[in-house]
């Protein structure tokens, strides 16, 4: 079972990963975006960690709803409402439970990913965060390790794709050959699930 | 307006307009332009929500929510946006449910032309649906 602490650790581990990779995310966002993805997400997840410490939400669902709301408020770029919607909708799908099963979490995260696709209008293959998140959710039933690997592969596979959403889509064919920054940060978010599970010695596997 | 509405009627409140751009200068300039084209009589409440809170390029959910609250007179609020995070932030706030005044709509319209159409129409006392329609019709204005 996954408890409130697991979800708090997930957010903390994501914030640490975003800190660690911020320069790389911004570098990926330079040729095809506006070179702010790393710093935007860093600001957002720093605020998420601060607000979780301050408000100490008591259920898995409220951890994610609060985190999502904070991202929408603080990021300043398109990744704010997109990641915010992902976490908030996932949190709402978890309901009021004090602990959730891994299968229930996988279903909730799928609802979150569906909400991201509805908000941004992106489908798999459009060279967006969806290309990491959809395979990750598909593999989440197996293990966090499998989900992390699927997200990483999905992110790497965006290099060959032509962008069809967001600012990168203005570049047309010139967007090919660059890994998508949003898919890359999505892979960090999914990889942080395993870290959160390992930190407690909880299963998750 | 030809529909017989009288904006002098104290019971008749004007629709508010919020203009969301990545740039504070663009949002406030378009607001100024639209208000300047209203002519005589009442002018609908218009508020720009441009850029991030620290003055950079981007979108601030806080500035959007504050602008919407500032122009809400109870007749609804029409929000026009430029692109990308401006659109997504407003949509995410609307999905949140309680972040924006009741009867707030994201209007699908070109930013400058739509803002002028929305502010002129709202200032004439049109309701939210009519303001939204007028702004959307600005897409049909060709320049070739």
Automatic annotation (TrEMBL), chain A:
GO terms for cellular component: cytosol. SUPFAM superfamilies: DhaL-like. Keywords: Kinase, Transferase. One of its GO terms (molecular function) is glycerone kinase activity. InterPro entries: DhaK_L_YcgS, DhaL_dom, DhaL_dom_sf, Dihydroxyacetone_Kinase. The keyword Lipid metabolism does not apply. Residues 5-195 form the DhaL domain. GO terms for biological process: glycerol catabolic process. This is Dihydroxyacetone kinase subunit L. It comes from Streptomyces phyllanthi.
UniProtKB/TrEMBL annotation, chain B:
Residues 14-144 form the PTS EIIA type-4 domain. The keyword Transferase applies. GO terms for cellular component: membrane. It comes from Streptomyces phyllanthi. InterPro entries: DhaM (IPR039643), PTS_EIIA_man-typ (IPR004701), PTS_EIIA_man-typ_sf (IPR036662). Keywords: Transferase. PROSITE patterns: PTS_EIIA_TYPE_4. It comes from the Bacteria. One of its GO terms (biological process) is phosphoenolpyruvate-dependent sugar phosphotransferase system. GO terms for molecular function: phosphoenolpyruvate-glycerone phosphotransferase activity. Transmembrane segments: none annotated. The keyword Membrane does not apply. This is PTS fructose transporter subunit IIA.
């Amino acid at each position: 079972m996954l408890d409130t602490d697991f979800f708090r650790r997930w957010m903390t581990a994501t914030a640490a990963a975003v800190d660690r990779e911020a320069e790389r995310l911004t570098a990926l966002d330079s040729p095809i975006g506006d070179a702010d993805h790393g710093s935007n997400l860093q600001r957002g997840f720093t605020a998420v960690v601060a607000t979780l410490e301050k408000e100490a939400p008591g259920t898995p669902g409220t951890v994610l709803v609060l985190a999502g709301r904070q991202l929408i408020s603080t990021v300043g770029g398109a990744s704010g409402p997109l990641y915010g919607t992902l976490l908030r909708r996932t949190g709402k799908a978890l309901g009021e439970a004090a602990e959730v099963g891994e299968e229930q979490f996988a279903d909730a995260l799928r609802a979150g990913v569906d909400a991201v696709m509805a908000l941004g209008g992106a489908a798999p293959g459009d060279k967006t965060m969806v290309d990491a998140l959809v395979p990750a959710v598909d593999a989440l039933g197996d293990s966090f390790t499998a989900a992390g690997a699927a997200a990483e592969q999905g992110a790497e596979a965006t290099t060959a794709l032509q962008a069809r959403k967001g600012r990168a889509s203005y570049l047309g064919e010139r967007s090919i050959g660059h890994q998508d920054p949003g898919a890359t940060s999505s892979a960090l978010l999914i990889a942080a699930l395993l870290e959160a599970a390992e930190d407690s010695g909880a299963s998750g596997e | 307006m030809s529909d017989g509405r009288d904006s002098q009627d104290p019971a008749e409140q004007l629709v508010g307009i919020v203009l969301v751009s990545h740039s504070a200068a663009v949002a406030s300039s378009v607001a100024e332009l639209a208000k300047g084209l209203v002519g005589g009589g009442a002018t609908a409440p218009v508020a720009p929500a441009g850029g991030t809170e620290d003055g950079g390029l981007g979108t601030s959910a806080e500035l959007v929510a504050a602008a919407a609250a500032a122009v809400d007179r109870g007749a609804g609020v029409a929000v026009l946006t430029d692109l990308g995070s401006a659109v997504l932030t407003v949509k995410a706030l609307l999905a949140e449910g309680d972040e924006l005044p009741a009867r707030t709509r994201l209007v699908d319209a070109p930013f400058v032309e739509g803002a002028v159409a929305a502010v002129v129409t709202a200032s004439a006392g049109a309701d939210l649906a009519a303001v939204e329609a007028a702004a959307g019709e600005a897409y049909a204005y060709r320049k070739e």
